[in-house]
Amino acid sequence: MRSAVLSVLTLALVTACGPARRGPAFGTPREFNAQQQEGRVLFMRNCNPCHPGGAGGLGPSINNKPLPSVAMRTQIRRGVGAMPAFTDEMLSDAQVDAIVAFLNKMQEETK
Amino acid sequence: MRFLPLARLHLAACALLLLPGCFHLFAGGGGGSTEFRPPRRVNPEDVAVPEGYRVEVVATGFTYPTGVAFDGDGTPYVTESGYSYGESFTQSRLLRVEKDGSLKEVARGDHPPWTGVAWHQGAFYVAQGGEQGGGRIVRITPDGRTTPLASNLPSLGDHHTNGPAVGPDGALYFSVGTATNSGVVGPDNANMGWLQRNPAFHDLPCRDITLAGVNYPSDNPLAPNTGHVSTGAFVPFGTETTPGQVIRGAMPCSGAVFRLVPGSTDPELVAWGFRNPFGLAFAPNGRLYVTENGYDVRGSRPLFGVADYLWEVEQGAWYGFPDYAGGMPVDQEWFKVPGKKVPKRVLQTPPGKVPRPVALFGVHSSSNQFDFSRSPEFGHVGEAFVAQFGDQSPDSGETLAPVGFKVVRVDVSNGVIEDFVANKGKGSGGPATKLGKGGLERPIDARFDPSGKALYIVDFGVMLVKAKGVIQPFEKTGVLWRITRAAPEAKP
């Protein structure tokens, strides 16, 4: 049982930082609500260098990451692997929420 | 606590993934890590553009093309560099592109690599990079006569003399990149080839700076098997520095943007503290912007996770080289190579307050020359269209996936970046060679024609990166592409 749980956990982690996938180069022009648009701008300033456009680069792709919002918040706040942690001095909770809202929108786009 | 062997294996895997091992485990996805056998295939059908735009091939067969400009009639002219990383020296040339796609040589010369060209009041102005002979800005008339305007620019190293761009004041603006990755001459510069040619060359600050006295040990590629040497910042290879040591500012200097006013051969300093300010362009509002290629994971002072940047240039400002990246000091976890120590600053005190970048491009994207849309008929007026040469992983540092190899547009009001021209496909992207297709390889310049209705993309061609320090470019694989807005279909 423990082995099975560990296998699932390992697989999840491998998927999370494994080979990158991007969505179609161009979809329909996206519509963003105010929170998503704020998140989009914050994403560009804080996340885009390693995940350009949400796709893989220095880091893995995150526009297709099957993670619940709470897990994304945790990753942003605590960092993971080579990804640094974003402290509340860098990003407020509301700003992290905005980035998560934008990422969720990105995942809708690339399904 | 005791674990079964299988459980231990799983725990080890989890630990590996949660530590920097994750990056090391999956790195190796750079776009240049592939195979290529000439000739290059070219197919506009393999290139994606937004709905309502179309892609055409204008001309093929260039060797290391770098820039495009248009004469008074709107005819395109392309610079062939004459040099590529990988120590491939060819002939620097300025070529006219005829309507049928054939190429006619207008001028040839030395001081490679020729990195860009502009047209102004009946003549071409070319940035001669200066890997050999030092950088120059030259005037070339349509009949091929060449006149140097500025010479002996300190660009014998990693990065070159770039530009030029004509300002609203009629002056020529150009840039000179730094000699090194991050201020310290090291074995990576021997891999580049220039350290053997110019062993005393190093970065030159534009103003007096005071060093912290940080030195970096390395092998000595100039005298193999002789043990280690120690090198500080802003000094020749193998020279140590001391705390409080002052390095006098020089003009011209490294990592700076300059201006040449009409009639002058004496460059004026506009701004400094850039690493490699490769692209320069003026926005419709007359403000100067530059793209900067950020630090790599190489040499004696590697820095990790550094973006490429778009800056709005402020007269007299210092942009942070070599102790800041995008306005952030480098002595923090953010820029630490996984598994290594946090980098140290080499300056005792920063010579200024670093501005904030307008936009942050992908790490290792090599975001290069660019232009602003000015035509409502093309669309996106006021946005910057930036050619991304693409990563040179693993030489510049490992990546999990290809970065760049496309043209992006930037809303300079908020820093939002969107793809504009990219290769088709749902995978990780990358150059056409990696995808086995006939699309974009390595875009290096994006420039609107005088009408503003067509965006021309200079595609440098195939350049593979076989290993750290092993770069393999291919002659005659460069392409000139054109993007136009398709005419709306007539309604029945």
Distance between the terminal alpha carbons of chain B, to the nearest Å? 78 Å
Assembly state:
heterodimer
Major sheet characteristics of chain B: 5 strands, antiparallel
Strand ordering within the main sheet of chain B: 1-30-29-28-27
Description:
Chain B: It comes from Pyxidicoccus parkwayensis. Chain B: This is PQQ-dependent sugar dehydrogenase. Chain B: InterPro entries: 6-blade_b-propeller_TolB-like, Quinoprot_gluc/sorb_DH_b-prop. Chain B: Residues 1-27 form the signal peptide. Chain A has 111 residues and is an all-alpha fold. Chain A is built from 4 helices and no strands. Chain A has helices at 2-16, 34-46, 69-78, 93-109. In chain A, helix 2 packs across helix 4 and helix 3 crosses helix 4. The longest helix of chain A has 17 residues, at 93-109. Mean pLDDT of chain A is 79; it is low at 4-24. Chain B is mainly beta and 492 residues long. Chain B contains 5 helices and 35 strands. A 5-stranded antiparallel beta sheet of chain B has the order 1-30-29-28-27, with no helix packed on it. Chain B has a 4-stranded antiparallel beta sheet with strand order 2-35-32-31, with no helix packed on it. A 4-stranded antiparallel beta sheet of chain B has the order 3-4-7-8, with no helix packed on it. Chain B is globular and about 65 Å long. The model of chain B is unreliable at 1-21 (pLDDT under 50). Chains A and B meet through helix 1 and helix 2 of A and helix 1, helix 2, strand 26 and strand 30 of B.
